[in-house]
Amino acid sequence: MGEFELIAKYFSAVGAKRSDVITGVGDDGAVIQVRDGHDLVVTTDTMVSGTHFFANDDPRALGHKLVTVNISDLAAMGAEPAWLSLALTLPEVNEHWLSQFSAGINETAEYYNCQLVGGDTTRGPLSLTMTAKGLVPRGKALSRSGAKVGDYIYVTGTLGDAALGLKLQQGLHQVSKKHQTHILQRFQYPSARVALGQALRNIANSAMDLSDGLYGDIQHILHRSAVGASIDVQKLPLSQALKDSCDNNTAYGLALSGGEDYELLFTVSENKRGSLDVLLSPYGVAITCIGRITGAIGKLELKKSEQTFSYQPQGFKHFA
Amino acid sequence: MGEFELIAKYFSAVGAKRSDVITGVGDDGAVIQVRDGHDLVVTTDTMVSGTHFFANDDPRALGHKLVTVNISDLAAMGAEPAWLSLALTLPEVNEHWLSQFSAGINETAEYYNCQLVGGDTTRGPLSLTMTAKGLVPRGKALSRSGAKVGDYIYVTGTLGDAALGLKLQQGLHQVSKKHQTHILQRFQYPSARVALGQALRNIANSAMDLSDGLYGDIQHILHRSAVGASIDVQKLPLSQALKDSCDNNTAYGLALSGGEDYELLFTVSENKRGSLDVLLSPYGVAITCIGRITGAIGKLELKKSEQTFSYQPQGFKHFA
């Protein structure tokens, strides 16, 4: 089977069928009708075998995660996800793998109302790159650069579960039976906070998604916004599963430096803070205030019971 | 040096500075103001070390080619190139390589008035994926699916030079000294037919770019348009350099199945054919009529002096 038949079979009709896609998979490029009065938001994420996943990982979960990590970036911008491109590099044709991987992409893309509109399939070491595109009302995109001194810092959901899930999958950490499914699910089938991200458009001063761990990720907001931050580690939202599975310090470490949570980190000024719970309650996602933005440019201060919390960051960095 | 500093150093300001880019490199995603009344065109191409190039190839030429192959797809759609995303997978940090590669992207992106707006850098086997985005007036995008029976088939420029350049670079074919620079240039620094592609918007019934060789590529038009084609191999436009370097059959073989020419293939109905030379002459690119579209669905007929030309295709196919 040639490259083109392969693509046609597994990737010609993936995800939602959107009426704004004039030309999808199969031409030199995709043609898309962008909604007037909106800005386009574009993001790209690569997952490399041996770096971000293992060659024998469940291909359906990989397809799910590839879509989710990209959609999560769009969510952090306050964008509505819409169109996906896939660059797939494969060492060989494995039909079972392809069918499962494309099924994972298909069901997740459909869930987020996204259509796969094109891409490229090549031969080489297993690697998955997705470019996701979405829409935001003109001028309403969230960014990492808008945090203001005095802003309250919030995160969605709970932190550290995905990192514990990775340890569990690798056999490096025990988790009691009743929590195993939840913890593995958080690692293998993460969710993107799309509705909440859109709800933050007129509320948050800055936002980003947590992919490499809070401790490292928040530095981007500090850098781009030229501010500092003070975080109370005791306020970090931890799941019951995480608390039951780890001692305190391990739990704080996973919450601070464990990657792949795909929760949102955002900052809100004092005058918008009062109505926050009411405005965000319809989205069914817990939000937790974990600290404040300070004027100490580039400085991240961790506190516990009003004491400085001493912490050696273990954030994931390629090329570190 | 961490991943983020690396990206910031070499990829934070690459290509043209466009006023429609609200947020570029450095946030969760790029934010782009799309021109009203236009459709968005998106294309993705991957180049894998060992499959599409060699690890010791000139990184500046690689940067140039990565941009050009993507822009060429936009040209084939009649689109105006605008924004690029780069997914770069590297086995290690090599500053010389990075500086040359980003210089190649920068100068080529600038030439085509494109801005690099984001991407991802990861560790793994060397691989380059670019997603290019462009604009076309609403409803005016060219496609592979519009060819009509009776259309005249045209190609731009000359065919087979890039394939000869690859053989020359590999030491597999001799080329006389006076032609070497031209032939290597055609392989290492191809051009995308952007202005001509835009000029074809109201002229061509179908169009595509030639990346894998005419013989294989035209099948996409036959398949998508449900037509056939008859091509006179004696009409294939060959450069003097190619004719001087090869016997007739080798030259036809390179022109039919040699990849990476990045010329445009397009079809035009009889009633638009008369004014074609006049309309396209300002673009300084030769066009050559090489045959007709027929009603024999899916059939590609090659002729030479009115006789059937017997040819064993050698088109490049991943996973073939």
TrEMBL record, chains A, B:
User: What sequence ranges are listed for the domain PurM-like N-terminal?
Assistant: 26-136
The keyword ATP-binding belongs to this UniProt entry's keyword annotation: yes
* Residues binding substrate: 52, 260, 316
One Pfam family of this chain: AIRS
Residues noted as binding Mg(2+) 4 in the record, renumbered to the chain: 28, 43, 73
What does the entry list as the binding residues for Mg(2+) 3?
Answer: 28, 73, 209
Q: Which UniProt keywords apply?
A: ATP-binding, Kinase, Magnesium, Metal-binding, Nucleotide-binding, Thiamine biosynthesis, Transferase
Amino acids binding Mg(2+) 5 = 212
Q: What is one process in the GO biological process aspect for this record? A: thiamine diphosphate biosynthetic process
Q: From what superkingdom does this record's organism come?
A: Bacteria
| Binding positions (Mg(2+) 1) | 44-45, 120
- Which NCBIfam families does the UniProt record give? thiL
Instruction: Tell me what else is known.
Output: Reaction mechanism of ThiL seems to utilize a direct, inline transfer of the gamma-phosphate of ATP to TMP rather than a phosphorylated enzyme intermediate.
| Protein task | Catalyzes the ATP-dependent phosphorylation of thiamine-monophosphate (TMP) to form thiamine-pyrophosphate (TPP), the active form of vitamin B1.
What this protein is called in its record is Thiamine-monophosphate kinase
Starting at the broadest rank, the lineage of the source organism is:
Bacteria, Pseudomonadati, Pseudomonadota, Gammaproteobacteria, Chromatiales
